[in-house]
């Protein structure tokens, strides 16, 4: 299946798993916001450390504005394949289209790794 139109760069399975892990650890020791609305507000307020966007969202328009908003606000963002797995990382029984880490807590080193990897992916894509 092809990627949705809002996906700006390809993310490896390892990097996606690191993002899930960062969300899980930050949920326990820091602060996360779940859902598209909460995520949008956090980006607009400039408090997002890492925005995680699911690729399998129907309709895609639900999250299509997030990458654009992140670019405008210089917030780091990553795409993950499954909203169900994102929901599980957040500790909820339903899928989540988007989430953001506001305070990383013990996940700080994972968040930094993911952010640096994303920066590398974006610069490689521009060349």
Describe what this molecule looks like in 3D.
With 127 residues, the chain is an alpha+beta fold. The chain has one domain: Ribosomal protein L30/S12 (60s Ribosomal Protein L30, Chain: A), CATH 3.30.1330. The protein has helices spanning 13-29, 36-45, 65-73, 83-89, 108-126, and strands at residues 31-34, 50-54, 77-80, 98-103. The protein has a 4-stranded mixed beta sheet with strand order 1-4-2-3, sandwiched between helices. Helix 1 (13-29) runs parallel beside helix 4 (83-89), helix 1 (13-29) runs antiparallel to helix 5 (108-126) and helix 2 runs parallel beside helix 3 (65-73). The mean pLDDT is 89. One of its GO terms (biological process) is tRNA 5'-leader removal. Multifunctional RNA-binding protein that recognizes the K-turn motif in ribosomal RNA, the RNA component of RNase P, box H/ACA, box C/D and box C'/D' sRNAs. InterPro entries: eL8/uL1-like, Ribosomal_eL30-like_sf, Ribosomal_eL8/eL30/eS12/Gad45, Ribosomal_eL8/Nhp2, Ribosomal_eL8_arc.
Defining key terms:
alpha+beta; 60s Ribosomal Protein L30, Chain: A; 4-stranded mixed beta sheet; 49% helix; globular
């Amino acid at each position: 299946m092809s990627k949705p139109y809002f996906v700006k760069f390809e993310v490896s399975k390892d990097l996606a798993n690191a993002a899930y892990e960062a969300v899980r650890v930050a949920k326990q020791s820091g602060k996360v916001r779940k859902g598209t609305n909460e995520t949008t507000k956090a980006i607009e307020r400039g408090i997002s450390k890492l925005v995680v966007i699911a690729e399998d969202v129907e309709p895609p328009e639900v999250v299509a504005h997030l990458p654009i908003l992140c670019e405008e606000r210089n917030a780091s963002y990553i795409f993950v394949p499954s909203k169900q797995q994102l929901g599980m990382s957040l500790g909820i029984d339903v899928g989540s289209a988007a989430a953001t880490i506001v305070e990383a807590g013990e996940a700080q080193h994972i968040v930094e790794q993911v952010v640096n990897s994303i920066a590398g992916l974006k610069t490689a894509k521009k060349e």
